[in-house]
Structure formats: structure tokens, C-alpha cells
Automatic annotation (TrEMBL):
Pfam family, one: UvrD-helicase
Entry keywords, A to Z: ATP-binding, Helicase, Hydrolase, Nucleotide-binding
Domain of life where this protein originates: Bacteria
Amino acids binding ATP: A32, G33, A34, G35, S36, G37, K38, T39
InterPro entries (alphabetical): DNA_helicase_UvrD/REP, P-loop_NTPase, UvrD-like_ATP-bd
Organism: Pseudoalteromonas caenipelagi
Gene Ontology biological process terms, A to Z: recombinational repair
Protein name (Swiss-Prot/TrEMBL): DNA 3'-5' helicase II
UniProt keyword Hydrolase, yes or no: yes
């Protein structure tokens, strides 16, 4: 998702084909490589439908639906279209939930007839009858789901909170996964729902279709299966499917049109040449101003060490040495003090280490953390972190910059004590400014030397942050003096997480905060989908990654390293393609390998990189 466009973009041949489909009421799929302007075509298409059919749609109270991958995507597309409410631009989960949430009876039936029986079947199959942990767990789950099934009729309403990855059916709470499976099932099988969606959204468009769940593609295709409106348009690239849940080779309803694009408007010719050598199914042509840009592609093959820590991991000393080597390569390239370089790592751990929030990272990915904790840590939404990411750190930064106006504005927007309609609203502005100043000074003093618990307690006591029951419960709890046991305390491990978090000092939080707000030169490789940067470093180190789901050495140098599994190769080659294709001008690939010279020979022989693009670093 590149930044909002300022220049006028001329429609391409593909855009004209899309318009013909729209005018003929035909569904279509746009399949094209990276940088070919799929998102741009999507925005042009949305604009075209508004221009031609917008007033009729408004008259009928209908909307144009556009589903995109991230909240950031929603923001970028909405902005390009002037935040017009003719469009329903949303993420997949939010779109689907808004379609099904009124259908409580159908949701309940779907749980009772499909979702819970499927889960029961799965768990019964896992129960071998033996006294092993997995069999005992399976039996416990069978019991739990049987109980839910017996009581589900008593649930009248269902809710979905986008921040929660848990379900609690008897409380009516659905998880992310439930929203997908229930929507897929209901839309595919409920004619009324199909009709309601089709009437409300005669035009539906899906961005990043390769990462959309297969059952949802099928369900939406069912809505648009007849001739005429509603129609659906998919935009995607199977080679950029970087999440396993995605469909990869998506297709529109039977008989829909396939539109291809061969242009690449993003990358310089050197990068496009690499993409063309890497990917055989499509040959891209440099097509816009980028065709005139002189850029570069370089591959540094860095001598990797044999991992010394258990489970094939680097020891701490090795990690330090890897970081030193990495910095040396960046210095040799001449990019060490450049601000316009994006460094792409597979895992957050390496970024946390480099940016200085490793302890925080370890805590939220360690034994006290759940999937929920990890996901919300990654997005900055965890209930322990949110007061810091939304209020306290911005306040500290405004205070450090001596920007009182900004500090006041943060307080007014977020703090109950400064709410213009709150209990201090009758106080004079002068008094409020004084209150803000003294609060800020004390907060800053605590920030400099105290623990996170003390900072939070002050912010809560002085109503600088809103009250969250969960947070309050954690803060008020007596310290736990029992050693954590995975077997015994699994369901209450959040208590240990909170206590460890509270005892930390504040030093790592700003680094984490800047990373999640994308204010650092680092990003994860998955996180840059849809983005573009002038200068990119893509770092590939199988050991750092320590995930056998990925193997960059086996993908780029199979003769030296052996053949990876199909899953490894498919995942890795797609992720590497996404990384390579983010670069507008200069791309530096850094591959850690135990055999740099042999790898060099192989990638030169295979024609992937040219000899003069490669350097070996011992
Ligand atoms: N028709 C066009 N003329 C000129 N520039 C274009 C055109 N279409 C797209 N671009 C520019 O090319 C770049 C890539 O476009 P866009 O992000 O839409 O591609 P994409 O196919 O969605 O990429 P990816 O699949 O890699 O995320 C952007 O900077 C965009 O402004």
C-alpha cells in the first residue's frame, strides 16, 4: 500500500478492460506482479464506478464495497477517494461481521450444526483413549464442547471484538476465526443473506485477493454467480501470498474475466530484471518514470556461524557477532548513516534486539504470553501496553520536546481528567493548564526512574488514563509469590505476564513504540506487503529465523543446501519476492550462509544474480 497518490494517473489497458467489465456487469480478476499498479487500478476502478453509477447508487441507498487487508490499507484507499460514504471500505473481518451480525439465529445454528460438531469430531479423533497429555486435553475439549452444545440455545446475541482472538460461545463471544468460518458458511448457504449483500453492494472489490480465505472467496463468488449485478472484482498476485490461510490461486465466479498487467511502475530496471529472473511465470516491463531510474541490485553472501545454542539457535554471543557483521556489511555498502533505507527482517526478535526492546519482546513472546497477548503486543493494542502507546509515551515525548500545546491536546483527547465534558470541565483554562503541567512533571520524574507499575498507578490515580477493569485488577493484585508452572497455571499465566511487565523500567518502551508506529528503519518482511521504499535491505538468515517453515538457503541455493520441503520453498520464495519487489531504486540482499563461495557459484550459474552484483563477506 504505497502512500496516497498526488499525481494524475492515466488508465492503462488493464484499467480500460476493467471498465468494460463494469459496464457489461461482468465479474473479473486482475492478476499481476508486484508494482504493476493493482492497488492503483483498484482505486481508479472505485472512482470510475462512482463517476458513472454513483448518483444512482446513492439514490437507492446502495454502496460500493472495497475489502482490503489492513487498517492502514483502509485509511490509504479512503483518503484517495476523499472519505466518501458511497464506499464501504473495510478490512475483511470488519466487512463480514457487519454483514452477519444481525443474523443471530443463523449464527447460533451454524455454531450448533457446523462449527461445534466439526470441533468435536476433531477432538474425538485426537483422543486415543490413552493417558497421554494430548489425549487428556482432547477429552477435556470434548467435554467442554458437549457442554456448549447442550446450552447454546440459551445464547440470544453474538458479539465480535476485533482485539480478541478468543471465543466464548456461551457468553456470545466470537473469535476472528469464527467470523471467517461462520460468514463463509452463512453467505454460501443462506439465500436471503446473499440477496441482502448483493442488493446493498452491487459492486464489490477485493484487494490482496491472494491472502483472502478460500471459503470467503467462494462465498462472495456465490453472491455474484448470476449474470448482471452484483459483480465482484479481485485484485491480487498469487506469488505474493505470504499467509498460509490465503487462497493463493484465487479465481472469480465461473465465467468471469481474467485481466493481466505486465507493467511495473515501481522498480528501477535493475530490480525488475532480478524479478524477471526470479519469477518465470511473468515478465514485467519497466513502464513509468521508474524506467529511467538508474538503480542497483547487490547480494552480500555473509559467512554464517554454526549455531551453538540448543535447537539450532545462535547463542547470545553469536547474536552479537551477527549484529556486528551486519553493521559492517551496511557500512561497506555505505548505507550506515542513511535515513532513507528500510531494513527487512523475518522476525521481530532481531529488530527488538537492534532497536533495544528485547526484554519486552521476550516477555510478550515467552511462556507467560498467549496468542492474544502476542498478537496485541505486535499491534500495540495489548491492554497493558495501550495506556503507554496511546497516552503516556506521546505525553512524555511532548513534554521532552517542551510542546505544551501538544501535551494538552493529548490529554484532552484521551484523559478523563481533561475531558471537556468530564468532572473537571468547570475548572478555568488556567487551572487546567496548571494541572496539566504538574501532572506532566510528576509523570516525567516517575518515567525517569520508576517501574512501569508506578508510572501506571500514577496515571490511573490522576485519571490521565481511562480505567480498564482488567488493568485495575492486575495493578491491585497482591504480588504472586508462587513459581510459575506451565501445567498448573496455564489458564492464568496473564497474571505472571502483568507482574513481570509491571516490574520493568521504562527504558525499552519508547523503542517499541517507535517501531510499531513505523518510525524506524526496520520492518518485518511480512509487514511490508503493499509498501515501497527507495532503498531496501532484505536480510535472510535461516538461523536467526529458527523457523523450519522458511529456508532462504534452500530456496536460493538448493544445490549447496539440499531441496527444501514444498511448503518451505513456496513460503520462502514468495516472501523473498515480496521483499525484492519493495525496492524502487536500490536493493541490497544479505544472505547468511555457511558456504558463501559455493552459494555464489550456484546463484551465478542459475543466472539469478550477476557475478559483479555479488560480494562475499567472511
Ligand atoms: N498507471 C500508472 N502510471 C504511473 N504510475 C503508476 C501507475 N499505476 C501505479 N503506479 C505507481 O506504481 C507504484 C506501484 O503501484 P501499486 O502499489 O498500485 O502496485 P501493486 O500492484 O498494488 O503493488 P504490489 O502488488 O507490489 O503491492 C505506485 O507508486 C503507484 O503510484
Amino acid at each position: 500500500m504505497s502512500t496516497p497518490q498526488r499525481r494524475t494517473i492515466e488508465p492503462t489497458e488493464a484499467d480500460l478492460n476493467i471498465r468494460s467489465c463494469i459496464d457489461e456487469f461482468e465479474s473479473f480478476t486482475v492478476i499481476a506482479g508486484a508494482g504493476s499498479g493493482k492497488t492503483t487500478s483498484l482505486v481508479l476502478t472505485l472512482g470510475y464506478v462512482r463517476e458513472k453509477y454513483g448518483s444512482a447508487l446513492r439514490r437507492e441507498g446502495q454502496q460500493i464495497a472495497c475489502i482490503t487487508f489492513t487498517n492502514r490499507g483502509v485509511g490509504v484507499i479512503s483518503e484517495r477517494l476523499g472519505w466518501d460514504d458511497l464506499y464501504e471500505i473495510s478490512t475483511l473481518h470488519s466487512f463480514l461481521w457487519s454483514q452477519i451480525k444481525r443474523f443471530s439465529t443463523d449464527i447460533r445454528n451454524c455454531l450448533a450444526d457446523v462449527i461445534i460438531p466439526t470441533e468435536l469430531k476433531k477432538q474425538r479423533e485426537k483422543d486415543t483413549g490413552k493417558d497421554t497429555k494430548s489425549a487428556r486435553d482432547a477429552r477435556a475439549k470434548v467435554e467442554k464442547y458437549e457442554d456448549i452444545l447442550a446450552k447454546i440455545d440459551s445464547v440470544d446475541e453474538f458479539k465480535y471484538d476485533s482485539l480478541s482472538s478468543f471465543s466464548n460461545y456461551l457468553k456470545g463471544e466470537l473469535s476472528h476465526d469464527d467470523v471467517i468460518s461462520i460468514s463463509g458458511h452463512l453467505i454460501s448457504n443462506n439465500r436471503l443473506l446473499q440477496k441482502v449483500i448483493g442488493q446493498r453492494y452491487p459492486y464489490m472489490f477485493i484487494d490482496e485477493a491472494q491472502d483472502t480465505f478460500g471459503e470467503i472467496v467462494e462465498a462472495l463468488n456465490t453472491v455474484c454467480s448470476s449474470k448482471g449485478l452484483p459483480l465482484i472484482g479481485y485484485f491480487g498476485d498469487p506469488m505474493q501470498q505470504i499467509y498460509d490461510r490465503g487462497m493463493g490461486n484465487f479465481a472469480g465466479p465461473k465465467g468471469s474475466f481474467v485481466i493481466r498487467k505486465r507493467e511495473n511502475y515501481r522498480c528501477c530496471p535493475e530490480v525488475i530484471n532480478l524479478l524477471n529472473r526470479y519469477r518465470k511465470d511473468i515478465e514485467q516491463i519497466p513502464s513509468g518514470e521508474n524506467a529511467k531510474v538508474k538503480g542497483s541490485v547487490r547480494l552480500s553472501l555473509v559467512q554464517a556461524e554454526k549455531p551453538e545454542a540448543p535447537r539450532n539457535k545462535y547463542s547470545d554471543e553469536q547474536l552479537d557477532r551477527v549484529a556486528i557483521k551486519y553493521d559492517k556489511v551496511i557500512k561497506d555498502i555505505g548505507w550506515h548513516d542513511r535515513k532513507d533505507v528500510k531494513h527487512l527482517f523475518l522476525v521481530r526478535q532481531m529488530i527488538a534486539r537492534r532497536l533495544g526492546f528485547e526484554n519486552l519482546h521476550r516477555l510478550f513472546t515467552g511462556e507467560f504470553s498467549s496468542t492474544y497477548s502476542q498478537d496485541t503486543y505486535e499491534s500495540g493494542e495489548h491492554y497493558l501496553l495501550r495506556p503507554f502507546t496511546q497516552i503516556i509515551i506521546p505525553l512524555i515525548e511532548a513534554h521532552t520536546a517542551r510542546n505544551t500545546t501538544q501535551a494538552l491536546s493529548i490529554l484532552k483527547q484521551n484523559s478523563p481528567a481533561f475531558d471537556p465534558d468530564g468532572k473537571n470541565s468547570s475548572k478555568s483554562i488556567k487551572k487546567m493548564i496548571e494541572l496539566a503541567k504538574t501532572s506532566m512533571e510528576t509523570l516525567y520524574e516517575l518515567w525517569e526512574g520508576k517501574t512501569l507499575k508506578e508510572v501506571l498507578k500514577f496515571a490511573l490515580d490522576n485519571k490521565l488514563i481511562g480505567l480498564s477493569e482488567r488493568l485495575l485488577e492486575d495493578i491491585e493484585r497482591e504480588p504472586i509469590n508462587i513459581e510459575f508452572s506451565k501445567e498448573v497455571h496455564q489458564s492464568e499465566k496473564g497474571k505472571w505476564l502483568a507482574e513481570s511487565f509491571f516490574s520493568m523500567n521504562t527504558s525499552e518502551l519508547p523503542n517499541y513504540y517507535h517501531f510499531i508506529n513505523d518510525n524506524t528503519p526496520f520492518s518485518t518482511q511480512h509487514g511490508v506487503k503493499g509498501e515501497e521504499y527507495p532503498n531496501v535491505v532484505a536480510v535472510f538468515d535461516d538461523i536467526e529465523a529458527a523457523w523450519n517453515q522458511y529456508s532462504f538457503t534452500k530456496t536460493l541455493s538448493p544445490q549447496v543446501y539440499g531441496q527444501g520441503t514444498d511448503g518451505q520453498l513456496s513460503r520462502t520464495s514468495k516472501l523473498a519476492y515480496v521483499c525484492f519487489s519493495r525496492a524502487e531504486v536500490n536493493l541490497n540482499v544479505i544472505l547468511f550462509t555457511r558456504s558463501p563461495e559455493l552459494t555464489k557459484q550456484e546463484v551465478v550459474n542459475s543466472g539469478l544474480f550477476l557475478e559483479d552484483q555479488i560480494s562475499v563477506v567472511q
